[in-house]
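Bug report (template v2)

What were you trying to do?
Predict the complex of my protein with zinc ion.

What happened?
Run completed; filing so the output is reviewed.

Input:
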Amino acid sequence: MSVEAVDPAIVAADAPVPRFWQRLGLPGLADVHVHFLPPRLRRRVWEYFESAGPLVGLEWPVRYRWSDADRVAHLGRLGVRAFSALAYAHRPGMAEQLNRWTLDFARATPGCLPSATFFPEPEAARYVTEAIADGARVFKVHLQVGGFAPTDPALDEVWGLLADAGVPVVVHAGHAPVGTEHTGPDPFAALLARHPRLPAIVAHLGAPDYRAFFDLAQRYPHVRLDTTMAFTPFLDQLVPFPAAELPRLRELGLAGKVLLGSDFPNIPYPYADQLTGLARLDLGDDWLRAVCWQSAADLFGLTAS
Ligand SMILES: [Zn+2]
Protein backbone atom coordinates (compact mmCIF):
# COMPACT_ATOMS: atom_id res chain seq x y z
CA MET A 1 0.00 0.00 0.00
CA SER A 2 1.84 3.04 -1.24
CA VAL A 3 1.36 6.69 -0.47
CA GLU A 4 -1.16 8.71 -2.42
CA ALA A 5 -1.27 12.25 -3.69
CA VAL A 6 -2.83 14.87 -1.43
CA ASP A 7 -6.60 14.78 -1.79
CA PRO A 8 -7.94 18.32 -2.40
CA ALA A 9 -11.36 17.32 -1.04
CA ILE A 10 -9.84 16.52 2.36
CA VAL A 11 -7.77 19.70 2.31
CA ALA A 12 -10.99 21.62 1.63
CA ALA A 13 -12.83 19.78 4.43
CA ASP A 14 -10.06 20.83 6.84
CA ALA A 15 -9.96 24.44 5.66
CA PRO A 16 -12.05 25.75 8.63
CA VAL A 17 -9.53 24.44 11.21
CA PRO A 18 -7.39 27.61 11.57
CA ARG A 19 -10.53 29.67 12.18
CA PHE A 20 -11.36 27.31 15.06
CA TRP A 21 -8.24 28.11 17.09
CA GLN A 22 -7.97 31.73 15.95
CA ARG A 23 -11.47 32.38 17.30
CA LEU A 24 -10.33 31.03 20.67
CA GLY A 25 -7.31 33.34 20.63
CA LEU A 26 -4.87 30.42 20.66
CA PRO A 27 -1.46 30.36 18.97
CA GLY A 28 -2.47 27.08 17.30
CA LEU A 29 -3.26 23.50 18.29
CA ALA A 30 -1.24 20.96 20.26
CA ASP A 31 -2.05 17.37 19.35
CA VAL A 32 -0.54 14.66 21.58
CA HIS A 33 -1.77 11.75 19.49
CA VAL A 34 -0.29 11.86 15.99
CA HIS A 35 1.47 8.96 14.29
CA PHE A 36 4.54 8.95 12.09
CA LEU A 37 6.13 5.58 11.37
CA PRO A 38 8.98 4.09 9.38
CA PRO A 39 7.66 3.32 5.86
CA ARG A 40 7.43 -0.46 6.19
CA LEU A 41 5.52 -0.35 9.45
CA ARG A 42 3.34 2.48 8.19
CA ARG A 43 2.28 0.32 5.22
CA ARG A 44 1.38 -2.53 7.56
CA VAL A 45 -0.61 -0.30 9.87
CA TRP A 46 -2.60 1.15 6.96
CA GLU A 47 -3.25 -2.33 5.59
CA TYR A 48 -4.47 -3.37 9.02
CA PHE A 49 -6.92 -0.49 9.28
CA GLU A 50 -8.21 -0.85 5.77
CA SER A 51 -8.83 -4.55 6.30
CA ALA A 52 -10.22 -3.99 9.78
CA GLY A 53 -13.78 -3.37 8.59
CA PRO A 54 -15.03 -6.80 9.61
CA LEU A 55 -13.08 -6.62 12.86
CA VAL A 56 -14.58 -3.44 14.19
CA GLY A 57 -17.77 -3.71 12.16
CA LEU A 58 -17.03 -0.51 10.25
CA GLU A 59 -15.17 0.57 7.16
CA TRP A 60 -11.90 2.28 8.11
CA PRO A 61 -10.45 3.95 5.02
CA VAL A 62 -7.34 5.88 6.07
CA ARG A 63 -7.95 9.41 4.77
CA TYR A 64 -4.37 10.70 4.87
CA ARG A 65 -2.36 8.07 3.03
CA TRP A 66 0.13 10.73 2.03
CA SER A 67 3.89 11.06 2.23
CA ASP A 68 5.41 12.20 5.52
CA ALA A 69 6.27 15.55 3.95
CA ASP A 70 2.69 16.08 2.74
CA ARG A 71 1.31 15.18 6.16
CA VAL A 72 3.72 17.49 7.98
CA ALA A 73 2.74 20.26 5.55
CA HIS A 74 -0.92 19.58 6.27
CA LEU A 75 -0.40 19.83 10.04
CA GLY A 76 1.25 23.17 9.31
CA ARG A 77 -1.78 24.31 7.26
CA LEU A 78 -4.09 23.30 10.10
CA GLY A 79 -1.99 25.19 12.64
CA VAL A 80 -1.00 22.14 14.67
CA ARG A 81 2.01 23.78 16.29
CA ALA A 82 3.03 20.80 18.41
CA PHE A 83 2.44 17.14 17.69
CA SER A 84 3.82 13.75 18.64
CA ALA A 85 5.15 11.04 16.32
CA LEU A 86 3.87 7.98 18.10
CA ALA A 87 5.11 4.54 17.14
CA TYR A 88 4.62 1.27 18.98
CA ALA A 89 5.90 -2.27 18.81
CA HIS A 90 3.90 -5.48 18.44
CA ARG A 91 6.82 -7.83 19.11
CA PRO A 92 10.18 -7.87 20.90
CA GLY A 93 13.28 -6.42 19.24
CA MET A 94 11.43 -3.60 17.49
CA ALA A 95 11.07 -0.71 19.88
CA GLU A 96 14.68 0.41 19.98
CA GLN A 97 14.81 0.78 16.21
CA LEU A 98 11.50 2.60 16.18
CA ASN A 99 12.89 5.05 18.71
CA ARG A 100 15.88 5.76 16.53
CA TRP A 101 13.52 6.56 13.67
CA THR A 102 10.99 8.68 15.60
CA LEU A 103 13.69 10.65 17.45
CA ASP A 104 15.47 11.36 14.15
CA PHE A 105 12.14 12.35 12.64
CA ALA A 106 11.49 14.82 15.47
CA ARG A 107 14.95 16.35 15.09
CA ALA A 108 14.22 16.98 11.40
CA THR A 109 10.62 18.15 11.87
CA PRO A 110 9.79 21.47 13.51
CA GLY A 111 6.87 21.16 15.93
CA CYS A 112 7.35 17.43 16.46
CA LEU A 113 7.72 16.28 20.07
CA PRO A 114 10.51 13.70 20.34
CA SER A 115 8.57 10.46 20.82
CA ALA A 116 9.54 6.92 21.78
CA THR A 117 8.13 3.56 22.81
CA PHE A 118 9.03 0.32 24.63
CA PHE A 119 8.08 -3.32 24.85
CA PRO A 120 8.42 -5.83 27.71
CA GLU A 121 11.91 -7.18 27.01
CA PRO A 122 15.17 -7.33 28.96
CA GLU A 123 16.68 -4.28 27.17
CA ALA A 124 13.68 -2.01 27.76
CA ALA A 125 15.00 -0.07 30.77
CA ARG A 126 18.31 0.49 28.97
CA TYR A 127 16.86 1.89 25.74
CA VAL A 128 14.18 3.93 27.55
CA THR A 129 16.95 5.55 29.62
CA GLU A 130 18.83 6.27 26.39
CA ALA A 131 15.73 7.66 24.67
CA ILE A 132 15.10 10.04 27.59
CA ALA A 133 18.75 11.12 27.50
CA ASP A 134 18.31 11.57 23.76
CA GLY A 135 15.46 14.03 24.35
CA ALA A 136 12.30 11.87 24.25
CA ARG A 137 9.45 13.93 25.70
CA VAL A 138 6.55 11.55 25.19
CA PHE A 139 6.23 7.76 25.00
CA LYS A 140 3.49 5.56 23.61
CA VAL A 141 2.44 2.00 24.24
CA HIS A 142 -0.51 0.11 22.85
CA LEU A 143 -1.64 -2.68 25.17
CA GLN A 144 -3.98 -4.22 22.61
CA VAL A 145 -1.60 -4.31 19.63
CA GLY A 146 1.39 -5.00 21.90
CA GLY A 147 -0.43 -7.89 23.55
CA PHE A 148 1.20 -7.36 26.96
CA ALA A 149 0.00 -6.52 30.44
CA PRO A 150 0.96 -3.11 31.79
CA THR A 151 2.03 -4.92 34.96
CA ASP A 152 4.43 -7.20 33.08
CA PRO A 153 7.46 -7.43 35.43
CA ALA A 154 9.77 -6.65 32.49
CA LEU A 155 8.28 -3.13 32.47
CA ASP A 156 8.36 -2.34 36.15
CA GLU A 157 11.66 -0.46 35.95
CA VAL A 158 10.50 1.39 32.81
CA TRP A 159 7.36 2.80 34.42
CA GLY A 160 9.51 3.85 37.38
CA LEU A 161 11.92 5.66 35.05
CA LEU A 162 9.09 7.56 33.37
CA ALA A 163 7.53 8.47 36.71
CA ASP A 164 10.89 9.70 38.06
CA ALA A 165 11.68 11.68 34.92
CA GLY A 166 8.10 13.02 34.64
CA VAL A 167 7.97 12.03 30.98
CA PRO A 168 4.38 11.34 29.89
CA VAL A 169 3.36 8.10 28.22
CA VAL A 170 0.31 7.82 25.99
CA VAL A 171 -1.24 4.45 26.77
CA HIS A 172 -3.84 2.81 24.57
CA ALA A 173 -5.37 1.15 27.61
CA GLY A 174 -9.05 0.94 26.72
CA HIS A 175 -10.95 -1.95 25.16
CA ALA A 176 -11.91 -0.06 21.99
CA PRO A 177 -11.86 -1.06 19.24
CA VAL A 178 -10.97 -4.65 20.20
CA GLY A 179 -10.60 -5.61 23.84
CA THR A 180 -8.06 -8.12 25.17
CA GLU A 181 -7.23 -9.46 28.62
CA HIS A 182 -4.69 -6.62 28.96
CA THR A 183 -6.99 -3.72 28.08
CA GLY A 184 -9.68 -2.04 30.13
CA PRO A 185 -9.61 -0.17 33.44
CA ASP A 186 -8.53 -3.07 35.67
CA PRO A 187 -5.03 -3.81 34.31
CA PHE A 188 -4.39 -0.06 34.07
CA ALA A 189 -5.58 0.50 37.65
CA ALA A 190 -3.20 -2.23 38.79
CA LEU A 191 -0.35 -0.39 37.05
CA LEU A 192 -1.24 2.89 38.76
CA ALA A 193 -1.45 1.18 42.12
CA ARG A 194 2.23 0.25 41.65
CA HIS A 195 3.27 3.55 40.03
CA PRO A 196 0.93 6.24 41.37
CA ARG A 197 3.10 9.10 40.06
CA LEU A 198 3.16 7.81 36.47
CA PRO A 199 2.31 10.65 34.06
CA ALA A 200 0.05 8.52 31.88
CA ILE A 201 -2.18 9.89 29.14
CA VAL A 202 -5.07 7.52 28.52
CA ALA A 203 -5.76 7.44 24.78
CA HIS A 204 -9.30 7.79 23.42
CA LEU A 205 -10.57 8.91 26.86
CA GLY A 206 -10.39 5.22 27.75
CA ALA A 207 -13.25 4.29 25.39
CA PRO A 208 -15.56 2.52 25.95
CA ASP A 209 -14.97 2.61 29.75
CA TYR A 210 -15.04 6.38 30.05
CA ARG A 211 -16.42 6.34 33.57
CA ALA A 212 -13.81 4.04 35.08
CA PHE A 213 -10.92 5.88 33.41
CA PHE A 214 -12.30 9.24 34.57
CA ASP A 215 -12.30 7.84 38.11
CA LEU A 216 -8.60 7.02 37.72
CA ALA A 217 -7.82 10.45 36.27
CA GLN A 218 -9.49 12.05 39.26
CA ARG A 219 -7.78 9.79 41.72
CA TYR A 220 -4.21 10.07 40.39
CA PRO A 221 -2.84 13.60 40.04
CA HIS A 222 -0.59 12.79 37.05
CA VAL A 223 -3.09 10.80 34.97
CA ARG A 224 -4.54 12.59 31.97
CA LEU A 225 -6.68 11.59 28.99
CA ASP A 226 -6.54 12.36 25.29
CA THR A 227 -9.60 13.03 23.15
CA THR A 228 -8.44 10.90 20.23
CA MET A 229 -11.43 10.08 18.00
CA ALA A 230 -13.93 10.78 20.77
CA PHE A 231 -17.04 12.73 19.74
CA THR A 232 -16.49 12.12 16.03
CA PRO A 233 -19.48 10.62 14.23
CA PHE A 234 -17.22 7.63 13.56
CA LEU A 235 -16.49 6.76 17.20
CA ASP A 236 -19.92 7.86 18.39
CA GLN A 237 -21.50 5.00 16.47
CA LEU A 238 -19.00 2.51 17.92
CA VAL A 239 -18.69 3.55 21.56
CA PRO A 240 -20.99 6.49 22.36
CA PHE A 241 -20.00 8.80 25.20
CA PRO A 242 -22.46 8.78 28.12
CA ALA A 243 -24.07 12.23 28.46
CA ALA A 244 -24.05 11.83 32.24
CA GLU A 245 -20.23 12.06 32.16
CA LEU A 246 -20.14 15.45 30.41
CA PRO A 247 -19.91 17.46 33.67
CA ARG A 248 -16.90 15.37 34.71
CA LEU A 249 -15.32 15.78 31.27
CA ARG A 250 -15.69 19.52 31.70
CA GLU A 251 -14.16 19.44 35.17
CA LEU A 252 -11.22 17.28 34.08
CA GLY A 253 -10.61 19.49 31.04
CA LEU A 254 -10.58 22.68 33.08
CA ALA A 255 -8.16 20.97 35.49
CA GLY A 256 -5.69 20.45 32.63
CA LYS A 257 -6.31 16.72 32.41
CA VAL A 258 -7.80 16.41 28.92
CA LEU A 259 -5.52 16.85 25.92
CA LEU A 260 -6.35 17.10 22.24
CA GLY A 261 -5.50 13.93 20.35
CA SER A 262 -6.55 13.04 16.82
CA ASP A 263 -4.92 9.79 15.58
CA PHE A 264 -3.90 11.69 12.44
CA PRO A 265 -3.24 10.33 9.85
CA ASN A 266 -4.91 6.96 10.53
CA ILE A 267 -8.41 8.36 10.62
CA PRO A 268 -11.33 7.56 8.33
CA TYR A 269 -12.61 11.18 8.31
CA PRO A 270 -11.20 14.71 8.00
CA TYR A 271 -9.17 16.12 10.92
CA ALA A 272 -11.76 18.88 11.27
CA ASP A 273 -14.27 16.28 12.56
CA GLN A 274 -12.27 15.94 15.79
CA LEU A 275 -12.56 19.66 16.54
CA THR A 276 -16.19 19.93 15.45
CA GLY A 277 -16.97 17.07 17.81
CA LEU A 278 -15.29 18.84 20.74
CA ALA A 279 -16.94 22.18 19.97
CA ARG A 280 -20.36 20.54 19.72
CA LEU A 281 -20.14 19.43 23.37
CA ASP A 282 -20.70 23.05 24.33
CA LEU A 283 -18.41 22.89 27.37
CA GLY A 284 -17.27 26.47 26.89
CA ASP A 285 -14.38 28.30 25.25
CA ASP A 286 -12.17 28.01 28.34
CA TRP A 287 -12.54 24.26 28.14
CA LEU A 288 -11.64 24.24 24.44
CA ARG A 289 -8.60 26.46 25.10
CA ALA A 290 -7.36 24.14 27.82
CA VAL A 291 -7.91 20.98 25.77
CA CYS A 292 -6.69 22.20 22.40
CA TRP A 293 -3.58 24.06 23.51
CA GLN A 294 -2.98 25.19 27.08
CA SER A 295 -2.86 21.87 28.94
CA ALA A 296 -0.35 20.41 26.49
CA ALA A 297 1.58 23.68 26.52
CA ASP A 298 1.85 23.41 30.31
CA LEU A 299 2.78 19.74 30.23
CA PHE A 300 5.44 20.05 27.53
CA GLY A 301 6.55 23.61 28.16
CA LEU A 302 5.36 24.87 24.77
CA THR A 303 5.50 28.55 24.04
CA ALA A 304 3.31 30.56 21.71
CA SER A 305 6.26 31.25 19.39
ZN1 LIG B 1 -3.38 6.10 17.81
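What did the reviewer find?
The beta strands are 29-31, 80-84, 112-113, 115-117, 138-142, 169-172, 200-202, 224-226, 258-259. The chain is about 45% helix and 10% strand.
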